[in-house]
Amino acid sequence: MATKVHGSVFSAPTMRVLIALHEKDLEFEFVFVNLRAGEHKKEHFLALNPFGQVPVFEDGDLKLFESRAITQYIAHVYEDKGTPLVCEGEPMATVSVWMEVEAHQFDPAASKLHRELVYKSKIGMATDAAVVEENEAKLAKVLDIYEVRLSQSKYLGCDCFTLADLHHLPALTSLMGTPVKKLFDARPKVSAWVADIMARPALAKVLAMRNQQ
């Protein structure tokens, strides 16, 4: 079966899927989608994802979109390959909780900060200081909870690296190059966790893909 990922390595959702594939040591074909040219809104791409967003994942005849659903598919279907990423039984319930926390508590604030501090500067737009201040405060509250959690467990879901941690990597890659880094550095457990997960070879492989585009 041919495994394909349609997307852009500069897209956080695409990165999420690519990191999961590298954690699993799976071979795949990467199909670049030119977002600047609006390729994701063209008919041929909308046939893969009617919402016109990257990534799209193909595994044989199966076609999936929504990055967190794709990573869960990869983790469960290829459970015997590479890094486990999920666990069985009761511990998986805790991993699932922290996956939800990333999606609904961490990511909304992190995404808005990325837009203001990274994306806008790239396209020459002015940063909205009020939006930055509001979302730094929101993110700080989330990280306070992470600091407590990481005093109880090496990683968010359990004592091993899982999707609950992996899903943070695209946002962390972006935010560590901005003043928001101070929020992570100010919390010792969070800071150590960030250093740990950002040192993973799978992330390095995805960042290397960026240099080839």
Key attributes of the depicted protein:
four-stranded mixed beta sheet, alpha+beta, single chain, 213 residues
How many angstroms separate the termini?
26 Å
Instruction: Choose one word for the global shape.
Output: globular
Low-confidence stretches: none
Radius of gyration: 17 Å
- What is the mean predicted local confidence, pLDDT? 96
Number of strands: 4
Please describe what this structure looks like.
This protein has 213 residues and is an alpha+beta fold. It has helices at 12-23, 43-46, 67-77, 90-122, 129-149, 163-166, 169-175, 181-185, 188-198, 201-211; strands at residues 3-7, 29-32, 56-59, 62-65. It has a four-stranded mixed β-sheet, covered by helices on one side. Helix 1 (12-23) packs parallel to helix 3 (67-77). It is globular, with a radius of gyration of 17 Å. It starts with a strand and ends with a helix. The mean pLDDT is 96.
How does the SSE layout of this entry go?
Blueprint: E1 3-7, H1 12-23, E2 29-32, H2 43-46, E3 56-59, E4 62-65, H3 67-77, H4 90-122, H5 129-149, H6 163-166, H7 169-175, H8 181-185, H9 188-198, H10 201-211
Parallel strand pairs: 1-2
Antiparallel strand pairs: 1-3, 3-4
Helix pairs in contact: 1-3, 1-10, 4-5, 4-7
